[in-house]
Structure formats: C-alpha cells, structure tokens
Automatic annotation (TrEMBL):
Protein name: Adenine deaminase
Gene Ontology CC annotation, any one: cytosol
Gene3D superfamilies: Metal-dependent hydrolases (3.20.20.140)
Family: Belongs to the metallo-dependent hydrolases superfamily. Adenosine and AMP deaminases family. Adenine deaminase type 2 subfamily.
Cofactor(s) for this UniProt protein: Zn(2+)
Organism per entry: Oceanimonas pelagia
Record key words, sorted: Hydrolase, Metal-binding, Nucleotide metabolism, Zinc
Marked site: Important for catalytic activity: 218
Cofactor binding description: Binds 1 zinc ion per subunit.
GO MF term (any one): adenine deaminase activity
Catalytic activity: adenine + H2O + H(+) = hypoxanthine + NH4(+)
List of residues binding Zn(2+): 14, 16, 194, 275
Residue numbers binding substrate: 276
EC number: 3.5.4.2
C-alpha cells in the first residue's frame, strides 16, 4: 500500500453501514442473539461473496444483516467501521443506513438509529471524526413504504441530514419516488440517490430533474452519454464513485476499464468511496490503490479526487477550508500537485 494513499486525509461519502458488517462480526452477533446461520463459519460466508451482478449481492447483503437486532448490535457495527476508517485517515464520513431492511423484520426505527448515532458521536468525541447520516429508501419496495419511513424518522430529524435511494436499480426508476422526495425536501432533508450504477444514463438525468438530488451515488453510466457528461461537468454535480464495488458487481470487467480517470479528466466532480467494504474487498485505501494500480492514476489525480470529496461533502465552508488545507499540505509533503485539467 502506497504511503501517499495511507496518509492522504480522506472523506467518504458513499458507505452503507450494513455493508461494513464483516463475516467475523456477523458470526459474533449471531452467537450473541442465538441465531443459526446457513454457513458453517466465517470463511464459508466469505466464500459466498462471489457476485454476478447487483441483485446477487443484495440477496446476501439483506440476509447478512438479519443478525442485527439490538441497539448494541447497531452500535458495534458502526463503531467497527469508524475505527477502520479512522485508521485509514478518513476525516469525515457520510453514511447510509437502510431503515426498511430492519423495520420490515420487526426491529424498531428507534433501535437502529440510536445505535448508529451513539457510535457516530463517540467517534466525533474520541477522534474528532465528523459525520453525517443519510437514510436510504429501498427502491424495490413501494413508494408508500418510503413515505411511512419518513414519518417514522420524524422524532429523529436532528440526527439525520439527508435521504437517499438504493437497492435494485433496474425497473425501479427515480420517478417512482417523486412524492417521497418532494416530502423529504419539504421536511428539510438534503437529497441524493443511487443512479447509473446498473441503470441507464437517463436515470441520472431523472434523479437530478425529477427528484432534485444534489449528488449522484455511482453515476458511472454517464460515461456513455456525452451530453450528460458535459452537463455534470458544467454543474459540478458530485458523483460518489465506488471502484471496487463496480468491479465486484461486474459493472466493469476489469479495473483497467473503469471510467474514473476519464470522468475526472472530463472535469466531473468524481469522488472515491467504498460502498460495502466488507463485501467488495476493501475500504477507502484499497479503493484509491485500485485506481492507481488498475488505471495508472497519478498521485496528483488521487489528490484531486480527495479534494473533490471535500467539495462534495456537507461540512460547513469553514470546516471544508481546514480539511482542504490538510490535503494540500499532504501533497506538498510528498511533492505532489493536484491534477487540474
Ligand atoms: N451498491 C449498491 N447499489 C444499490 N444498493 C445498494 N445497497 C447497498 N449497496 C448498494
Ligand atoms: Zn451504494
């Protein structure tokens, strides 16, 4: 692992906290909660992480999170991710959780969010690590369920910054969630959505125009649409790209074919993120390293990707200035200038 990448101050903007659940913790929580799993041990579970596409991942992802039952379980999962991120010099993180995947199993919204929130506060206190929390609607479920989730979130509004949209993209276009997003906007939430992961470039346009999102999660399908690329570059719409996720879910056939470098060089505000690191073979450093190894991206390009993370995040302007300063100082220490077109 390159020292430049390890020491680079990083921002993570696309992380599903349930996707940080490592097999060891799945088994520990199963034991604690008296649950029998369909896998003999941790290595048998890890061996099942061989995906053909998004749906084959989602099936295992939703099964894995069934071990999460108590507030302490949600705390332990979130704490484990934050500890790992802190070790990798992630300074700020904006994390998703999937409330419907838990409330549909009978785990109350309050249990889920209280455990996650407590871990975020502890990381802020212990390590000065800042964070935002985004609740994500499952797009394979009806819009009415998303609207009901918004209602359940009302008592916890102060702990939530934004809403997102994830799960099976194809066949569940942004327009299905127009009303839910309009309500979320009225309630003061910031808006993002997964679009253009497996779905077409039109879903990226629709997420922007019909839902009014300010960031696109993934968005790599834009590479096939020159007019959309020009618009995203012109408006500096951030894309939270997840290289190892795209490789493991076969959005790309090889890292050498990943569009990240082309998107950056076309002037888009692309950022590096880990999506579901326990399932896709790596956290933030591994994603940066994969871009360097697979695409030959320079340290200057990686520096710009980290700066884009700051531009795209939801910290205050003052906090952003401080973090950008740290990233620039890191570049100077290594004699690296940020890629600039
Ligand atoms: N990469 C991804 N795409 C869609 N939904 C998800 N839920 C967790 N990870 C996801
Ligand atoms: Zn995602």
């Amino acid at each position: 692992m390159s020292a430049f990448i390890e020491q680079l101050p990083k921002v993570e903007l696309h992380l599903h906290i349930e996707g940080s659940l490592e097999p060891e913790l799945v088994f520990a929580l199963a034991r604690r909660n008296g649950i029998t799993l369909n896998y003999a041990d941790e290595s048998a579970l890890r061996a099942a992480y061989d995906f053909d596409d998004l749906q084959s991942f989602l099936d295992i992802y939703y099964a894995g999170m069934s071990v999460l039952q108590t507030e302490q379980d949600f705390f332990d999962m979130t704490h484990a991710y934050l500890q790992r991120a802190h070790r990798e010099n992630v300074r700020h993180t904006e994390i998703f959780f999937d409330p419907q995947a838990h409330t549909d199993r009978g785990v109350p919204f309050s249990v889920v969010i209280t455990g996650i929130h407590r871990a975020l506060e502890q990381a802020r206190h212990d390590w000065g690590m800042s964070s935002r929390l985004i609740m994500s609607f499952l797009r394979h479920l009806p819009e009415a369920s998303a609207i009901d989730t918004l209602r359940q979130a009302e008592p916890f509004h102060a702990w939530l910054t934004g809403v997102g949209l994830d799960s099976a993209e194809r066949g569940n276009p942004p327009e299905k969630f127009r009303r839910a997003y309009a309500l979320a906007r009225e309630q003061g939430y910031r808006l993002v959505a997964h679009a253009g992961e497996e779905g077409p470039p039109q879903y990226i346009r629709d997420a922007l125009e019909l839902l009014g999102v300010e960031r696109i999660d993934h968005g790599v399908a834009a590479i096939a649409d020159d007019a959309l690329m020009a618009e995203l570059a012109e408006r500096r719409v951030p894309l939270t790209v997840c290289p190892l996720s795209n490789l493991r879910l076969r959005v790309v056939n090889a890292m050498a074919e990943h569009p990240m470098q082309k998107l950056l060089q076309a002037g888009l505000c692309v950022t590096v993120n880990s999506d579901d690191p326990a399932y896709f073979g790596g956290y933030m450093n591994a994603n940066y390293q994969a871009l360097q190894d697979g695409l030959g991206m320079s340290d200057g390009e990686l520096l710009r990707l980290a700066m884009n993370g700051v531009e795209a995040c939801w910290l205050s302007p003052e906090e952003k200035t401080l973090l950008l300063h740290d990233i620039q100082a890191h570049g100077e220490k290594f004699g690296v200038r940020a890629f600039d077109g």
